[in-house]
Amino acid sequence: MDEAKAIRLCLRHRDPAGFEFLVKKYRREAFFHAFALMGNREDAADACQESFRRAFTSIPNLVSLDCFYPWFYRILRNCCLNMLSRQRTILNHAGENRMAGRVAGTTAGPESILSRKEEAAAVHLALNSLDAEAREILSLKYILGNCYEEIARLLGVPRGTVMSRLFHARKAFREEYLRRSKPDLNGTKGEHHE
Questions:
Q1: Coil/strand/helix, residue 126
Q2: What is the 3 state secondary structure string of 11-70?
Q3: Residue 192 has pLDDT above 70, yes or no
Q4: C-alpha to C-alpha distances, 7 to 51, 55, 62, 186, nearest whole angstrom
Q5: Which of the four pLDDT bands, split at 50, 70 and 90, describes residue 138?
Q6: What is the arithmetic mean of pLDDT over 115-126?
């Protein structure tokens, strides 16, 4: 089975086998996109499950669909943004604490490992403090490695809008990162709690 056949099965016959093919094909990509928005695995998995449920319910109502993922991504993105708006305070506190300690192991010395962990935590904290749109565009480009055209297709916006959003998101990230890493008058780095 290919994507076009799976879509036809979903549209014409409400066939769960066609949708199962689409889920298997895109579940990994969906998870990474949700993770980029949500900031943690549990919420990303919940958002994916809810989004696939909504897509399964909605796809038979479509007249046509050429490509599944751009349509599905809008559902996933809206689901993530809705979850974030409901959980904003919790994610700012709990999400930062959970992710601050997660850094890949290395064979370098303890000082180097500590430095890398601190750097990764600072990057994550700065990224997590941005609004969802900035976090999304930065994650799509720099974490997931999408090109401008792919991001434009996923978000349903022109390439120029992607470039503009990236410019402003990079600027916001840089300011937040510098604010957090700048020593205060007591000689310690900026606040890491909010």
A1: helix
A2: HHHCCHHHHHHHHHHHHHHHHHHHHHHHCCHHHHHHHHHHHHHHHHHHHHHCCCCCCHHH
A3: no
A4: 17, 12, 10, 61
A5: confident
A6: 72
Identify the residue with better confidence: 165 or 103: 165
Environment class of 109 (CB within 10 Å of its CB; exposed 0-12, middle 13-18, buried 19+): exposed
CA triple 120-122-127, angle to 5 deg: 95
CB 70 within 8 Å of CB 76: no
Q: Token match 């996109």: residue?
A: 33
Tell me the pLDDT tens digit for each residue of 98-116: 444 444 444 455 665 566 6
**Gyration radius of the chain over CA positions:** 19
Query: What Å distances lie between residue 188 and 118, 185, 192, CA to CA?
Result: 13, 7, 11
Q: What's the pTM?
A: 0.61
Domains of the chain and any CATH numbers:
1-87 (1.10.1740.10), 101-194 (1.10.10.10)
Kindly list the distances between the CA atom of residue 192 and the CA atoms of 82, 173, 177, in Å, as whole numbers in the listed order: 26, 15, 11
